[in-house]
Amino acid sequence: MAKIILDPARSAGTVSKNIYGHFSEHLGRCIYQGLFVGKDSPIPNKNGMRSDVVEALKKLAVPVLRWPGGCFADEYHWEDGIGPQEGRRHMVNTNWGGVVEDNSFGTHEFLELCAQIGCEPYINGNVGSGTVREMAEWIEYLNSDGDSTVVRRRRANGRHDAWNVKYFCVGNESWGCGGNMRPEYYADEYRRYATFCRQYGKNRLYKIACGPNSDDYEWTRILMERAGKYMDGLSLHYYTLCGDWQTSKGSATRFTEEEYYRTLFRAARMDELVSRHSAVMDRFDPDKKVGLIVDEWGAWYDVEEGTNPGFLYQQNTMRDAMVAAITLNIFNRHCDRVKMANLAQTVNVLQSVILTEGDRMVLTPTYHVFDLYKDHMDARQVECSVESESVCEGEYAQPQVTASASEKDGVFTLTLANLSAAAPVRVQVEGIRAAQCSGRVLTGPMDSFNDFGCSILEVRPLEGISLTDGSVGVALPACSVASLRIRA
Length: 488
Ligand code: AHR
Fold this sequence. Notes:
Layout: E1 2-7, E2 21-23, E3 45-46, E4 49-50, H1 51-59, E5 64-67, E6 91-92, E7 100-101, H2 107-117, E8 120-125, H3 132-143, H4 149-156, E9 167-170, H5 183-195, E10 206-209, H6 217-227, E11 233-240, H7 257-267, H8 269-284, E12 291-299, H9 318-333, E13 338-344, E14 354-357, E15 360-363, H10 365-373, E16 380-387, E17 390-391, E18 398-399, E19 401-408, E20 411-418, E21 425-430, E22 436-443, E23 460-461, E24 466-468, E25 471-476, E26 480-487
Bound molecules: alpha-L-arabinofuranose.
C-alpha cells in the first residue's frame, strides 16, 4: 500500500511544456532515415520529412526540438547546409560512425520539420570549431529581416521572413567533445560569443550556456559566477547507464532484476543532480531567472548486435519507460528551476520514442510515457508527498512508487510509476476531494518491448479506480506507469 498526499496550496510554479522536449542529432539514423528521407523517397513524406514519424510526434504535442547536436554541433558549419542540394559540401561525420554527411538536411529543412511537428526549434551553435562571425551570421540568417547580404541569401534560398528562432545554445559539452575547455576559459568564450548573438526585431533570443557534465558542480559555480548574468539558461547532461562507460554499458533488452533496479536507481539520481546544481545556481541567481536546461538525458546501453557502434541504436523496454517516468516526475517537481529538457534522442538513437526500419515504424514504451504525461505541460505543479515501501534490498533500495502532480482548469493530473518488477501496489490518493477520476496505464514485464510487426505495449484504460469519500484508490500493476485525471 502506498499513500499519495496532494497539497494544492503548495506549488513550485508552472511545469514548462518544454520539459517534454526532444533532441535530434546528425547521428546514426536519427535525422537521415528517422526523420528525413528526402523528397524522392518511396517512404511517404512531405518535403522530405517522414509523414508517419511527424504524425506520431504531433500526437505527443512535442513542444521543442534540439538540433544539430550534440558533439556534431561543434563540427557543424551551417553554411554547408543551405542553398541548392547539389552544391552542398560533403563531410565525414567523425564523431558518429565516420559516415559521409551530405548536408542535405540543413537549416531550412530543420525549420520545415519543426513547422510540420508544430514545435519550437532549439539550435545549438558551434564554439569548438566555429567562429564568432559564423555564429553571429547564423543568427542573422535565422532571425533578421534587415536588408543585409546574409538576409538576401536566405531570401534567395526560398525563405522570405525571419524564422524568429528563440532557443540557442552556445557550444555543446565544451568540457569534452566541444573543445575540452576549462570552465574559466569557456566562461570567457561564452561571454564573447553570446555578445554577438544579436536580438532581432521583437524576437527575444533565449541564450543557453554549456553547463556541466552530471555532477560537476564546480563547472556550474564558475559559469554562474563569471557568466551568469549573460545567460538565460545553463544546460545539464546526464545519462543513465546500467553498466559503465569503460567496459560495457549493459544490454538494452537482456538484464537481470538487479540490473533493472540498478538502472532505475541511477535514473533517480537526476533528483540529486538537479537539486545540487540548483543550489549552486541559487547562490548567484536567487530569483531563479536562469533556467536549468537538461538538454540531454536518457538511458544509454550497448548498441544492438550487428549495428554500427557509432550509430548508438538501442531497443527500448519497460525499463526505459520507468526511467522516463522517474525522470519526468523529477523535472515536474523541480519546475521552478528546470525550464526545458530534451530526451536523447527522438528516433533510432539512444532512448528513442520512435524506431524505424525502412518504411516501418515502432512506438517505444518511452513514447507512451510521454503520451501519459502530456497533460502536465504548462499546468500548475502541485506538491505531492509519497509514502511507499521500498523495492529491492541493499544498494539499490528505493521507493516503490514515484509520482508528480499538476493542476489545470480544475483537473489534477497525477502521474505514477510502480517500480516493482513483480508486485502490484494499491495506491490511495488524499489531500483533495475527488469528484471524478479516470486513468490510463502502460504495463508489461520489465524487459518487454515493441518490435517491428509486434507491438505488445500500449496505453490502456486503468480499470478498478474507486472513489470513497473523495479519496481515490487504485491498484497499479507491477512495472507500470499510470496517469490519473482527477476532477475535484
Ligand atoms: O547524445 C549522444 C552524445 O552524447 C551527444 O552528441 C553528446 O553531446 C553527448 O556526449
